[in-house]
Design brief:
Layout: E1 5-8, E2 13-17, H1 31-34, E3 39-43, H2 58-69, E4 75-80, H3 82-93, E5 98-104, E6 106-110, E7 113-117, E8 129-134, E9 137-142
Parallel strand pairs: 2-3, 2-4, 4-5
Antiparallel strand pairs: 1-3, 6-7, 7-8, 8-9
């Protein structure tokens, strides 16, 4: 399964995953700034944008992304909405492939616990933090990239 990936910039690899019924173009306004510090890979998920391949389960989406970025090495994943769910699933399936996983406006159950990432927009402000809540426990985690 081949996915469409636009790559720009130089630095540590950053993979960006859009939401359902969208495409990688939703990140167009932040990619130039991120590309000054990162090698940005904007992926069109299966069945979206320029990717003709399809997937019918969260695992299939995560596997397709894993295959598309396999040669990049360990990456930072940033997913928005459904893309955040795919990012979280990929991090669970292949932890050796993912250094950092951030999701925005997404939720996911992992090992019987539900994780919810709250509403701050990705890349809006350097150094911003966001809460990750997991059934009763909350931990501060960095979710913004320094621009």
């Amino acid at each position: 399964m081949s996915l469409y990936v636009e790559t720009s910039g130089d630095g540590p690899p950053l993979v960006m995953l859009h939401g359902f019924a969208s495409h990688g173009g939703v990140f167009a306004s932040v990619v130039p700034a991120l590309a000054r510090r990162y090698r940005v890979h904007v992926v069109d998920l299966p069945g979206h944008g320029h990717s003709s391949a399809t997937a019918d389960t969260l695992d299939a989406y995560a596997h397709a992304v894993a295959t598309a970025i396999d040669s990049i090495g360990p990456v930072t994943l940033l997913g928005w909405s459904f893309g955040g769910q795919v990012a979280l699933r990929l991090a669970q399936m292949r932890p050796q492939q993912v250094e950092i996983c951030w999701g925005q406006r997404c939720q996911q159950s992992i090992g019987g616990k539900k994780f919810l990432l709250h509403d701050a927009l990705p890349c809006r402000k350097a150094g911003a933090r966001q809460r990750l809540s997991a059934t009763g426990a909350q931990t501060d985690v960095p979710v913004m990239l320094e621009i």
